[in-house]
Design brief:
alpha+beta; FAD/NAD(P)-binding domain; 3 domains; five-stranded antiparallel β-sheet; 8 helices; 17 strands; about 20% strand; binds flavin-adenine dinucleotide
Length: about 325
């Protein structure tokens, strides 16, 4: 998968001619590839979007919000209803197969690392269409989210602790020592629970991330986005303690699928954070999300390819068989 992405033009960070590998929470070996220091997702997305745009058989509909999943009389998925967000125009798209990839639910929480689009609307649509939804109580909180001067939540990647940064309480003590064999790099749920306990004990709304002992050139090279974002908020990553607190980060549950990404509604697939494939158990390990999205996207594509010739065009409930197709077909 990594090789395929590189052939597609994704530029991962290299060290002495080999992929540079990092460690994050709960990891026992360095095996996380990364790009642009701390911009892996953005780089993977850039190369995938470029490939899609180059493919003349793919039509991209911008500013098109899916508002519901359509089902036929048998309860199979047969398309989507959408709204053009610039004109408000509603459209129906009929399809033999729909792949839902609408991301997580972070915006349901007051503090989240997620962008504004992560509202869980895709999961709600799948539920309305009759899909089984699973493990919604498994929400992962990220230990180190920084509130910027502009009031935005900014995630400070675990890779900073992978490079040796410490977590300290208000007295300056490293409270994770003795709490987990990996100390600050324990699994996220363990670290977050300790942070919450420390914040309650100390009556504060934050703890501190300390990267002052890490060489300046390492921080600059590995975490350029963090250095710049902290600087914008008047905080110096190299010499100051950084105020951080936990925030909702990743939905482990979602629309239940099998290992081919099929949901319980025939013709409806789910992929990425919206899906609950089961591969993360109850606690995803850092950096397995992008990987899951990529691996399952390929499995879904293969499954659709295998079944497409057997699938017949379907009509939504309430429409007559011979009715003319809608404008969005
Ligand atoms: C700050 C941050 C850092 C992270 N770092 C890592 C990392 O280093 N490694 C890792 O593995 N994971 C990381 N994760 C997690 C990972 O990025 C996400 O789980 C992953 O991007 C989810 O991908 P996705 O395609 O499923 O959803 P998203 O990337 O959230 O995309 C969902 C898309 O669906 C669109 N959408 C939603 N609803 C609708 C609708 N109704 N109609 C039309 N479109 C809709 C949204 O606009 C969005 O474009 C990070 C997450 C965050 C927030």
């Amino acid at each position: 998968m990594i090789r395929e992405l590189m052939e597609m033009g994704t530029t991962f960070d290299m060290k002495q001619g080999k992929l540079s590998l990092a460690t994050e929470g709960g990891h026992s070996r360095a095996r996380v590839v990364h790009a642009g220091g701390d911009a892996t997702g953005a780089e993977v997305e850039r190369s995938l979007v470029r490939s899609v745009r180059k493919n003349q058989r793919v039509t991209v509909h911008e500013r098109t919000l899916v508002v519901d999943i359509l089902t036929d009389r048998d309860g199979s998925c047969c398309g989507v209803a959408t709204m053009d967000t610039s004109t408000g125009e509603l459209r129906i798209y009929l399809a033999k197969v729909v792949v839902l990839a609408t991301g997580g639910v972070g915006q349901m929480y007051q503090f989240t690392s997620n962008p504004s689009v992560c509202t869980g609307d895709g999961i709600a649509m799948a539920y309305r269409a009759g899909a089984i939804i699973s493990d919604m109580e498994f929400v992962q909180f990220h230990p180190t989210v920084f509130q910027t001067k502009r009031g935005e939540s900014f995630l400070i990647t675990e890779a900073v602790r992978g490079e040796g940064a410490f977590l300290r309480d208000k007295k300056g003590d490293r409270f994770m020592l003795g709490k987990h064999p990996l100390a600050e790099l324990g699994p996220r749920d363990v670290v977050v629970r300790e942070i919450v306990e420390v914040m309650e004990r100390d009556g504060t709304d934050h703890i501190y991330l300390d990267a002052r002992h890490i060489a300046r050139n390492v921080l600059e090279e590995r975490f350029p986005t963090i250095v710049a974002t902290l600087q914008e908020s008047g905080v110096d990553f190299f010499t100051e303690l950084i105020q951080v607190s936990p925030a909702a980060h990743y939905l482990i549950g979602g629309v239940k699928t099998n290992l081919d990404g099929e949901t319980s509604v025939s013709g409806l697939y789910a992929c990425g954070e919206t899906a609950c494939t089961g591969v993360h158990g109850a606690n995803r390990l850092a950096s397995n999300s992008l990987l899951e999205g990529l691996v399952f996207a390929r499995r879904i594509a293969q499954s659709i390819k295998d079944s497409l010739s057997r699938l017949k065009p379907k009509m939504p409930q309430g429409s007559s068989e011979g009715s003319s197709p809608s404008p969005g077909d």
